[in-house]
């Protein structure tokens, strides 16, 4: 047996007090005079014997009571089996959960404040020579080094709430990495958290006999909470002054119905729309918010709900660009097409530019979301390669073939692109028999589709092969599954193949009612949609149109409280912005080149923290199937002595305290109930 606080053993000197009292009986006797004491001699001897036994028993109970009381304060314990390692240097990794859920309040204050206090108490149970790692959800480089006890206590004070959240297996892997630097030390992992269910990992955690795992659960009550799940527009195209329809989806993360949750939409800090939504337990609901009056340029939007007591996820940020115009490039093989010019010139939003096939600026192709090949018979290898790269990087191409010349150049180009290829030109009238109304090109075009819809007629057309290894989507089709107008994907872009050119001699397609919506929609769909928002704490790779920087120019990502220089990587036709862990707070951020606005990006929480449900001890233990983990009780008292007791062995102080009380009680019983023997008088 050993003692955690052997200094208290000096109190055993107090045993001398009852001994001295026993040896020097300070009780004063009253003299009683008798005429003759001869008759009392036998009674005196018998009474003295009983009195000595009683005094010795009382002395023994006092000594034992004081001894066990001193032992209780000295905290005796039985050493653990591996006590030979007790004096090795110990390395501890203490994880403090600093996710948003730790803003919840209990009797000890916020959960984060209690977690920091518990971390200090754990560290205090170890010696000054031991080493400590502090880990939080941020996983920053500063947390990957070992600290002294004093440095650890200082680092704990600096922990604050973070938007990051981690899975349990990620945390433990990160903690074990620091142990590689100290292979000969005794290793212990502590995790201090409220252990939300979203923290549990899908896979079990491998056993490691060299590392002790201890969990400290902070008690918090499940709380009702409503969060914004997502937002999106009914159409991806935004024009100045157009009416916008924003679809909002809210999620109820509790087991109670949420009634009339207020929703407010602000765009550029101006309120645009309000709504009220009722959500059933553990479900989602969507609603449409309509607004208008937007000017051209980037729009910074914020959706806000009113939901107490959990408020960290009550705001949702998103951004979008209202386009001033859309630029198109029409490459003509012979002459400009009057139908194409008429379609795009009728709407000032479209800016169509016509060029001859031999006068193309290859470096400027990426500036156009849509390129139209109008009866270009000779597609050179250079033009073909440039168009392939353009499409792979997100460009869109419409091909109207030239039926009067050889198709070998077009066949070679399309073969490289991986689409169907020209087979033959047919001089036969054929009418379109099928229109694919499910394709995005036709969304919103028809209010009511007539049963006998009039469709285009081809008089002379190009028949393409129907290869099974292509990703063809039919828009218009003639009998016999002959393609009239089809879409193919290549990389990030699309190719649209028409079976007819835009001339009245070959078909009535250019004068048909479906021609205008097809040309409008393919142009509008060619716009690169930037995400309305991104999630925090993820490796973000944002693709942008080509950004050119001079030697004295830099990019900045900033909002009212933050500014950083993002990592920009250039490709042939576009730029990529890499954002690792630079963004810590949700909000709208402007991307600036010097003082010129390039784009606006919005970042929001991942959303998993919104569900304030907590894992049970059994659910946690299932993740450690082949190892024994300890879940420490967070009573109002300090964890320091509890950790010391666990580290050293089986604690006996409670047994000692009980024995001390037993012996003091025995003393009281002896004094109260131990009676002298009644002696009868002696007769002559």
- Per DSSP, the total helix count is 12
Please report the total strand number as a whole number.
37
Structural category: alpha/beta
- Specify the biggest β-sheet: 8 strands, mixed
Strand content: 25-35%
Query: Please, what is the average pLDDT?
Result: 87
Instruction: Tell me the span between the first and last alpha carbons.
Output: 63 Å
Q: How many whole angstroms does the radius of gyration measure?
A: 42 Å
User: Outline, from the CA principal axes?
Assistant: elongated
**Model regions low in confidence, pLDDT < 50 over at least 5 residues:** none
Helical content band:
10-25%
Please state how the strands of the largest beta sheet are arranged side by side.
Answer: 17-16-18-19-27-26-25-22
Helix and strand layout, with pairings?
Layout: E1 2-3, H1 16-23, H2 41-74, E2 76-79, E3 90-96, E4 105-106, E5 109-110, H3 111-124, E6 131-135, H4 149-157, H5 168-179, E7 186-193, E8 211-217, E9 226-233, E10 244-252, E11 258-267, E12 270-279, E13 284-291, E14 297-305, E15 315-322, E16 326-332, H6 338-345, E17 350-356, E18 370-374, H7 381-392, E19 396-400, H8 408-417, E20 422-426, E21 430-431, E22 434-435, E23 457-458, E24 461-464, E25 473-478, E26 482-490, E27 493-498, H9 515-525, E28 534-535, E29 540-545, E30 555-559, E31 562-564, E32 567-570, E33 574-579, E34 587-593, E35 596-604, H10 617-621, E36 630-632, H11 640-648, E37 649-651, H12 653-673
Parallel strand pairs: 3-6, 3-7, 7-8, 8-36, 16-17, 16-18, 18-19, 19-27, 28-35
Antiparallel strand pairs: 1-2, 2-37, 4-5, 9-10, 10-13, 11-12, 11-14, 14-15, 20-24, 21-23, 22-25, 25-26, 26-27, 29-33, 30-31, 30-34, 32-33, 34-35
